[in-house]
Amino acid sequence: MNKLLGIGLALSLLVVFGSCKPKQSAYKSVYEAAKERELEENTGAVSTPAYPTYSNVENEPVRTEKITPVYETDAAGLRAYSVVIASLSVKPNAEALKTRMEQEGYNVILAQNPQGMYRVIIASYDDKASAVNERNAIRDKYLSMGTSDALRKTYGIPFDDLWILQRQY
Question: 77, 80, 94, 160: which could join 118 in a potential S-S bond, CB 3.0 to 4.6 Å?
Answer without folding.
Answer: 94
